[in-house]
Amino acid sequence: MNKEYNIALIGEIDGCIETTLEVLLKRDFAINNIFPISSSECDTTSVMYSGKPVDVVELETFDWQQVDIALFLSDREIAATWIPVAKEHCVVIDISGYYLESPEVPLVQVGVNDDDIARYSDANIIAIPSPETAQLTLAIKQIHQEVGIKRVTVAGYQSASTIGKEGVSALAGETARLLNAKSIEQHKFKQQIAFNVVPQIDEFNEDGIDFSELRLAAETRRLLNDPEMVVSTTQVVVPMFYGCSQAVHVVTHYPVELEEVANALHHSDNIVLAGSVTEYANMIDDVVGNVEVHVGRLRKDTCDAAGINMWVSADNVHYGIATNAVLVMEKLAYTYL
């Protein structure tokens, strides 16, 4: 573990990259050189890391032979264009969902299926799940392992940052304009996001399902290694800057006592379980800016003896993107490289 690594981070400089740099520094990851690479036009020329400025690098001219690991914290379009180039020279960790249907690329969530990192050499790529899938699978993994799950139904409430910094800016800008009696001329989301809820993130397919919904269902089954499990979800954007909360309904293979479910959650790493059936985390005070996944309002379903309801919350950027990417990178570097 004495080796130091050369790392590239591709994404929004003033968004997920800055947060990932904070996590890297806090976890004291062994870095030799770090290369922040903007995935879009950016006026920022440097970022701070460990008290020193680090120059932002151009994606189009970057020499991938300089790095050991590249974290692609970007969208599917960037992934499709640049990962095939990068993987010839370094190991790629990708959060975009571009490799959702690629069995040769392992999908890994630390705390759920860590051992699958060993398959990284099949394609020199590791996929990590969406932030929504990450918090969901961590919350239900132990229940699935100890009891078995037939069905999961999820209503996900995404903050504006689900589409990155431009979503945060859109919510702030729309809110300011409306409070000053000005009209909104264009939308970053499918509808106005200020003072509204929008049940769509990506484009719908012919069945009326968007990619974020398809992705959560497919990734959950794959991470839990249960292709028969039924997963149904509706993803909604709400007027909040950061964080994601989910109303989760789980149907187990047989009825279980609530105490048994609570004990399973207590044995799950990185889970904070509320103290009673009436308690739940405060998104502002407890969730945003933190790395834990909070589970509250844990209760039996009054209509199904095998049903369990819970409220699952996490910071989609700090935990869902930055921390998950760094945890996978640590496991890869310290165990396999």
Descriptive account of the structure:
It is globular, with a radius of gyration of 20 Å. α3 packs parallel to α5. The protein has 2 domains: 141 residues, 3-Layer(aba) Sandwich (Rossmann fold); 185 residues, 2-Layer Sandwich (Dihydrodipicolinate Reductase, domain 2). The protein has a 6-stranded mixed β-sheet with strand order 9-8-10-13-12-11. The chain has a 5-stranded parallel β-sheet with strand order 2-1-5-6-7, sandwiched between helices. With 337 residues, the chain is α/β, with parallel strands linked by helices. β12 and β13 form a beta hairpin. It contains 8 helices and 13 strands. The model has no long low-confidence stretch (mean pLDDT 94).
Keywords, separated by commas or semicolons:
single chain; 337 residues; alpha/beta; Rossmann fold; Dihydrodipicolinate Reductase, domain 2; 2 domains; 6-stranded mixed sheet; 5-stranded parallel sheet; 31% helix; globular
Any chance you could write out the topology, listing elements then pairs?
Blueprint: E1 5-11, H1 13-27, E2 31-38, E3 46-49, E4 52-55, E5 69-72, H2 76-86, E6 91-94, E7 125-127, H3 131-146, E8 149-158, H4 165-179, H5 211-223, E9 230-237, E10 244-252, H6 258-266, E11 271-273, H7 283-287, E12 293-300, E13 307-314, H8 318-336
Parallel strand pairs: 1-2, 1-5, 5-6, 6-7, 8-9, 11-12
Antiparallel strand pairs: 3-4, 8-10, 10-13, 12-13
Helix pairs in contact: 1-8, 3-5, 3-8
Q: Could you give a quick summary of the protein structure above?
A:
With 337 residues, the protein is an alpha/beta fold. It is 31% helix and 24% strand.
